[in-house]
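INTERNAL TRANSFER SHEET
From: sequence group
To: structure group
Subject: HAD-superfamily hydrolase, subfamily IIA, CECR

Please process the attached sequence and return the structure record in the designated field. Keep the field labels unchanged so the import script can parse them.
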Amino acid sequence: MSIGLLARASQSQKNGKRLSPILSALSRSFSQSQSQSTLPSFGIAFDIDGVVLRGETPIGGSPQALRRLYHHDGDSGALKIPYIFLTNGGGFRESKRALELSELLGVHISPSQVVQGHSPFKQLVDRFENELVVAVGKGEPAAVMSEYGYKNVISIDDYTSCFENIDPLLPYKKWTTKQVSYQNSTSKERDLRNNIHSQRVRAVFIVSDSVDWSRDIQGAFPAERLGLGAFRIALESVFNKIHPHALGYTTYGKPNPFVFNNAETLLKQLVQSCHHNVNIANHANAGNRHLKTLYMIGDNPSVDIYGARQAGHPWFSILTRTGVFKGKDNHPEFPADLVVDTVEEAVDYILRKECTS
Ligand SMILES: [Mg+2]
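Return from structure group:
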């Protein structure tokens, strides 16, 4: 698994505080044409890997399943059922990931429907906005943080390139990393690098899996990946061995209940987007609307299912057999409320239950 990890950060700041502008943009981009008089009283959070995609391939009938969550009045792509993707993966901006998912799955997905392992870092921007922070991980970790509003962020590749001999193992490494091109860098980026030696790094954000070590420590590709969980243990072990004080850290990502509470807030706000033109007077409190059921559809019992169960009411967990879990019966240690073969079956179950009652 890959979860967002902020080394030495303390408690996150007021949950959900920065979400409103994104969601209000979303509400503009969604339906202009609903005519239903009832608002949905449920929302859905989809895990991505092993549920809707394997690599870049849709699985489990995911495109058909997702299409059922939209209105079919022409090509408006208007959302009918509030849903989000809730993944511990990451490394790319939510805006970019939303575009990719839209193309792969054939439906319009907004950036605010994509919650990645590092998405909660948005909420720490007030604290580190102008501080020097380093972004670690595969993909475009610095671009991710810049999009969140961090103004003084540098990727670990760029940062290490500013220091000679920072990596004692470099001479032994057979691979070559892409040389950073400074020709197209902005004056701000050049200033950052020129002044790097006189600035103190205030935080290191592990945005996604660290590229340089993880392959070797995990072996080829075992059934269950360890990713940042293993990296955190390694970091903590080493740090605590060589420092008098223990490493302070906060982890984000499923199965942390924080993630599910945040997902609930997002889904409640999405209700408004689903029925933009509905008589607002009747639905003045749509944004604070109580959703009586929230479905978590996942393939990993100890992450998706355990997380949803820990979060409790109104979460209902559905375990698919297309990813980590392949069992015939329910998982013995982290049983789901429902076990199905595919995500399509899961959505079918939800829609039958919710839309015919
Ligand atoms: Mg998964």
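Handover comment: The pocket of magnesium ion is lined by residues 47, 49-51, 298-300, 323 (CB under 6 Å). Confidence is low (pLDDT under 50) at residues 8-36.
Transfer complete.
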